Amino acid sequence: MDRVTKKPARLNRRRFMQLVAVAGAATTCWKLGLMGTGKPLQAAHRSQSIMGTVLNLTVYGPDRDVCEEALSNTIGKMVSLESHLSRHMATSELSLLNRTGRLSNPETDILKVLTLAEDISKKSFGGFDVTILPLLLMHESIQGENEHPDQQQLNTAKNLVSFENVKLGKDVIQFEKPGMGISLDGIGKGYIVDQGIATLRNNGFNNVYVEAGGDLMVSGQKDDHNPWRIGLRDPRGKQHKPTVIEVSNRAVATSGDYLQAFTPDLKHHHIIHPKRGFSPQELASCTVTAPDAALADGLATAVMVLGKDDGFDLIESMDGCEGYIVDKNHNNFNTAGFFS
93-183+229-334 — its CATH code? Predict the structure, then answer.
């Protein structure tokens, strides 16, 4: 059962500056050994609904109360990003763009996410494409009947999918074709996780875990001596124990056919090939480790579309990225450095 958390308290400027000062001083003392090497770190945990999923944060630091206030401040920052990036929030910048086909004077965050999405789209030869929304909405509307969609409807939706038809600039974002739409489901949560990590680090906390809907980033260590250990879910639930990796200062993101299935056999799901218009049939899941969560998030989706060979070629072309996949026959493969 998800934990229910009180709404984060609002901090005035003076209290916020006190928090940052205390957190920075406490962390510095701990690093320098002034607080005593035998004193265990204090852990604080928090959960919060965000972007249609659950956000989970863990922070380790010398003072529990300071940890708790830093979590509240960080959650406030992350929730505020939802007002720019969520297609499900009617008042968001993204929803305005999808309704009108144009967004003037876009905020920095949506520009950063779309710029990264464009880069991944080019490097994956269109395997990753955030303009997938018309196809996604079509399949959502015919759940259970995905084998035989109306051909004209399918062709119309496919014709609206291509990042090449998005004009992306600091003054305006505009669709070149009426009816286009963007979903940031495959990259937005990762970006929000990255911003959560950045906020905690700026507040003086380096031993942190931030996760949202399977996209996560860890920094430092779990406590004084132990690394973060991340369990990878078996997409078919056949393994009694999850595959475990140890990571630090790394992001981990997983995409899978089981996460949002449109048919019971998992043949049709929320990951759709932008050019073919249907879900790819080779892989059941893909996990990517990368320097940041937005990149890991986008690459995991891209590999699901591209398949093993082209997907691993993409990952291996990206500095600091590794991948692990499970195919539909439950065979697993990984790049050379994934477990190292």
Answer: 3.10.520.10
